[in-house]
Amino acid sequence: MPRYRSYTCAIFICLTTLLSGCDILGFHSWQWNQKVTIVVETPGGVRTGDSVQSVVWSESPHWSKIGDSGGWFTNDLKGEAAFVEVAPNKYLFALLKTYDHPAVDKVFRPQPVKRPYITADGFRNQIRAENEAIQASRETREVPRASFPTLVTFTKPTDPSTAVKVEPENLEAAFGNGYRLVSIRLGITSEPLTTGRVVKVLGTEFSKIWTEQIQENIRIYGPFSQIPFALKITPSQFRRGG
């Protein structure tokens, strides 16, 4: 290949990279940190626990679509699950949930209005505007019951097989009399990600133990057996993205 063509290709690649970061070619991204806070009333008083997580939204333009992939929005969540120690060595975890997909339950996005005449470009513009507003926000809101994450506790925190699902309206079934979920709050924040808290409670071997337990369950009951609730909970629901 002639040298000038190599230079041309190199310049084009550099320009493409630079321009995509500037949103000129139709690529764009948004990032914000969200803080999930759990508030629980206990016989010993009100207890709270929280976690700051990172959300990244990316948009690729129409022309980047290959087959059925690309040309739309994707989002990613990193961080660790929020939890609160309601009593010594008794924890209530709120499994990771992004709260930000435009087609599911929302906290910071308005309820969609069904209008058949809205175009795909119109929907794109709506999501962009919502992302801009969320990214700039520093507001905290109550999470509605319909948008609650799955809540779990452990009989023995370092043993994944002891996980028990907790119903938000009936914490007493899991912890005893006098326990009540007051609220789950979600805020957009400038605070840094929280790290290391989940590992301190569940232990460094949680993922390894979970894998061994699910493999043992398959060995004993077969690959098509009913998996117990505790083993349906994956480590990524407690910690994601390193």
Topology, please?
Layout: H1 3-21, E1 28-42, E2 45-59, E3 73-80, E4 82-87, E5 90-94, H2 120-136, E6 140-142, E7 151-154, E8 163-166, H3 172-175, E9 180-189, H4 197-202, H5 206-221, H6 229-232, E10 239-240
Account of the protein in words:
- The protein is an alpha+beta fold and 242 residues long.
- The chain has six helices and ten strands; from the N terminus they run αβββββαβββαβαααβ.
- A six-stranded antiparallel β-sheet has the order 6-9-1-2-3-10.
- The radius of gyration is 22 Å and the shape is globular.
- Residues 8-22 have low confidence and may be disordered.
Averaged pLDDT, please? 86
Q: Given the helix and strand composition, which structural class is it? A: alpha+beta
Please report the total strand number as a whole number.
Answer: 10
Order of helices and strands: HEEEEEHEEEHEHHHE
Give the strand content. 25-35%
Strand adjacency order, main sheet: 6-9-1-2-3-10
Distance between the termini: 42 Å
Helical segment count? 6
